[in-house]
Amino acid sequence: MINRKGETMINVALLSRWHVHADDYAREAKENEQLNITQMWDEDTERGLAWADELGVPFEKDLEAVLSNSDIDAVIVTAPTNRHKEIIIAAANHKKHIFTEKVLAFTVKDCEEILAVVEEQGVKLMVSLPRLTESDYLYADQCLSKGWLGKLTMVRCRLAHNGGVAAEGAEHGWLPARFYDKAKTGGGSLIDLGAHPIYLTNRLAGPAHAVYARLQPQTSKDVDDSAAVIVEYNSGALGIIETGFLSHGSPFQLEMFGTEGTLLIKDGEVSLKSIHVNDDQWVNLEEKLPVVPKPIEQWAAAINSDSKSVITKEDVIHLTLINEAARLSNDEGRRIETKEITG
Fold first, then answer.
1. At what angle do helices 295-305 and 22-31 cross, to 10 degrees?
2. Contact 320/108 with Cβ under 8 angstroms?
3. What average pLDDT is seen over the chain?
4. Which residues contact 101 (CB under 8 A, 6 or more apart)?
5. Running DSSP on this structure, what letter comes out for residue 308?
6. pLDDT for 84-96, tens place per residue?
7. What is the arithmetic mean of pLDDT over 254-275?
8. pLDDT given for residue 7 in this prediction
9. Which of 102, 109, 152 is nearest to 128 (CA)?
10. How many angstroms separate the CA atoms of 102 and 95, rounded?
């Protein structure tokens, strides 16, 4: 099939509605002129049939039948995280391009095994790390690249919501109960919502040297409802990462502190104080920055034109590295050097 721009359409299968962002990615795929949703699968047949009916596409209960279908070019994986490795490797071995929700896998070792198969099979893999394409990160990156902060000494990033707060009489909050299944999710607030502060802080501060973390169950039995992580970076900078499912009204915050300036971002409001700008007086940054395509748009473009994504395999591996080190730190009550994970 050819779209109105003369581009070959990419036939996509949706793999599971388990993740809360599955509907978002389906919508983005439908809105993308390069993508054509033609089939879907779900490990929960009833849920899959309902979704297929909503989208007006065929449901296939056999995953292997989907992956071996020569009419399918690519898959969007929003299955439980503990099935990512199995599903993504199978898809790659069937020469399907892959878009997946974060995290890629629970361990660095599993990530590396997945990426090795993806590279061997020559398919395009995109892990959705959307805040690397948004203005908050772009302002922060601009401040670093222009030297406005001097030597970076500390980054603090917080993202939290109230998805775990149950209204009176309710059993749980708006976050689905399945998000508290540790076997499927690998954890709670940190591995899910905390992924965004982790990959943002990693990108801004560079390779990590050591991690100390507290993953706190509060209303949950098996997973963390709130989490705080301190990351020591090779550069000498410290990262402070905060997240949680029990915070009403908590704004997104990204703060960067350096020897020559400070950047404060709160829900899209960007303030800078730097010896290099505005006579060292606080200034609000409102400059329009270049638009960076969303991850799913970058993925489609990479498939059709072999363009390079701004989201890298290093972003993906280092996200899992911090999560893996944080789990170990919490379980053992000690500071973990990243070399203990990577060898």
1. 50
2. yes
3. 96
4. 19, 21, 22, 25, 77, 78, 81, 127, 128
5. P
6. 999 999 999 999 9
7. 97
8. 62
9. 102
10. 21
